[in-house]
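Fold this: Peptide/nickel transport system substrate-binding protein
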Amino acid sequence: MRKLILSTALAAIFALPAFAPASATEPSYGGNMVLTYKDDVATLDPAIGYDWQNWSMIKSLFDGLMDYDPGTTTLRPGLAESYEISEDGLTYTFKLRKGVKFHNGRELVADDVVYSINRVVNPTTQSPGQGFFASIEGYDEAAEGKADAVAGISAPDAETVVIKLSRPDATFLHIMALNFSFIVPQEAVEAAGADFGKKPVGTGAFKLAEWSLGQRLVFEKNADYWISGVPYLDSFTVEVGQEPVVALLRAQNGEVDIPGDGIPPAKFVEVMKDEAQASLVVEGGQLHTGYITMNVTQAPFDKVEVRRAVNMAINKDRIIQVINGRAVPATQPLPPSMPGYTEGYEGYKFDQEGAKKLLAEAGYADGFDTEMFVMNTDPNPRIAQAIQQDLKAIGINVSIKSLAQANVIEAGGAGTAPMIWSGGMAWIADFPDPANFYGPILGCGGAVEGGWNWSKYCNPALDEMAAAADSIVDPAKEGERLAKWSEIYMKVMEDAPWAPVFNEQRFTMKSARMGGADELYVDPVSIPVNYDYVFIKE
């Protein structure tokens, strides 16, 4: 065995409050922050929760073996104070921190980690995160209900967790930082049963103190939190049932610190033109790409010339104007803030004449008729209409099918949608690694009935390249691995199963009394806000 990245002595540094991002204002303690959302929270169970609204709340209630530096995509240790990776990259040995306590007062032990991961893999839990653990030895048997536990996970003693993989997986440490890997106490889960998502017990910086359905959730500071010095807030309250326009008005009146649903599209220009209000808006990139899928298994999109023509026909700058400039043009599947992004690649330039030439070469000089499915919430139908106009200019007549999100997803999974505008459903990375943008939405494994690879694009050679890239587990060779991922995405662009359109920027409004680095309010991992490290200045 060789120890990579972290020694125990080094890991101890991460328990210090100095880990907080730099801020112009010295952090202060106390106070209650108020956020609003239109919809109630579905669940706070880390095995079940899988939407942007509950993601950061769950992160404040629970911890995993790994974590990220606040406001960044840089891995750091979490509940594991150190880890070792075997020479073949198949065995991970984690040493737990001593003295970490659950909210119920019991001390964390290695068996809790084993239980928590087994719980997610167990099919009776019906966790949407089950598949993230597929590289662990014995996963298939446990996931299919043929085994009571995943064979590759064990706890040789109270402070040690050993996880054996069936194949090298360079993303595994990121998976250990996912919400689905967060640790829960078995006795609390069994006591609450199906209500654990409403009665969560974790090791996180905050505890759930109140949940009045349809009204509010109140999170109180965990005085026994294992990271010294945080959180800064005494509490934060999430008020639900607030229309975004009303929430913005309340924020303008100083009654709300963060309108969680963001700035309503109809009010965005007005807010950004007002210097006082604009000064309270934080902008940041997110691991997101909005794209048009083309079903490569059906004519005419079975011809690469047609797919490239669609890419060349899209006026991305004009489409971004539809959303008031809240994005940057996308040139490739990966967003700019994602490791592995190919710098300097310009993608398919807007060129209508060139697009018409490609259509003619493919045998469609007179164009063709097709359908594009789109989620029926604003601004997605308007974006679809802009795409429709661009494609009409090169002879492609697109009928728009504006449907509820579930219906669009169903059509995409079934392969019955010739084209889909992904807006409202577009991919936001589960973890900051290029692999997460490939397997589910571009790899052969996702091009199945019900899968999220709506273009049904399957290139076995690229799947092999992806597997080879993720078999590089030595951090010293991470540059080599990312170069391989860059090559994979460049080959995807040659085949053009998508037309990447834009990478959406996140705009968060915060009250003047809120402090902390801007990155915390557009945290790429703790979407939308990193509650553990923000504070009230007054």
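The chain is about 25% helix and 20% strand. The CA atoms of residues 211 and 217 lie 4 Å apart.
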